[in-house]
Structure of Autophagy-related protein 18a:
Amino acid sequence: MSTVSTSPPFEFSGPDPIPPLMEPDDSYTPSPQNAGPNPTPAQLPALLNLSFNQDHGCFSAGTDFGFRIYNCDPFREIFRRDYGPRGGVGLVQMLFRCNILAIVGGGPDPLYSPTKVMIWDDHQSRCIGELSFRSEVKAVKLRRDRIVVVLHQKIFVYNFADLKLLHQIETIANPKGLCEVSHMGPQAVLLCPGLQKGQIRVEHYGSKRTKFIMAHDSRLACFALTQDGRLLATASSKGTLVRVFNALDGSLLQEVRRGADRAEIHSLAFSSTAQWLAVSSDKGTVHVFSLKVDSGSLGSDRSRSTSEISLPNPSGISSLSFIKGVLPRYFSSEWSVAKFHLQEGLEYIVAFGHQKNTVVILGMDGSFYRCQFDPVNGGEMTQLEFYNFLKPEETF
């Protein structure tokens, strides 16, 4: 159950109004005077949430003091809003690079109730809309025409222009708030857990079709969706295998192996061309896998078998694959092309950078890495940049 309140009339005010289904203007520059006081070194903020924007060109950080927005390339802080020790922001979601954000309170002293989604206009430095719920908000996803709010066992889809409720979805228990939505095209594709353990639900709003995919035997730990909504990748609580599916018909296209030991997968990310897939886990590694499917041809190429689509990659498949009918599946698995080692046990999220063959890694300890991988020879990635964006002495 949800309630809605807005500052009448609800509209995207400021220098960058967002017409429905149009690219937001990226020229918005926040007013420095609105940034608020910076915490002293003894009051360094604790990170509560990290998330990339829709094109992975920026990321937002929710802290127990407020929130901050950073540009990825070149790396720099764009602005911050520090509200003091009672200004905890548990979730902050950007809408590309415009002045509209979705904010949910969090931490020991939340700025807003964790059961509310506040629509923040940074040009006006105020909330212009509010969505209230009976339980804690686990995640918020934005596209130009939709707001998706994820609760523990329910998902609400709203029209962005007037906050009208369009759709409700029941899910299995979803404590992580797993949900993804496509960002390209006039009609949304939404990805969320189904009502059974290991089941994926895909909502195709353009064709008004719902597709259910039994992706894993164990519970879902993480999933990702391409920007056009044609491909999805899933990982289970075991964290050893990652599966890539056709979102249109639910067919399994490829299976890759992160490792042999159980791991908690923290994030999955497709490259913009869906040529590569990045995976981060609590093992302190980020893996890059080569994908062998052309997402642009999925709609007309459904007759191809999985073996035809998943052609072996010499740099990523076991040399023992010729006896895969005898040995366990482990030996015929497709392995990563490249990897990067980090501190084990920390949570990292990953995305592909705008520079060719680069990966951006964000850590919940405030770390920012930019790494480059060799698409031909693979191996260990090269670290290009590192910053700790929570430390005031760091200069970007």
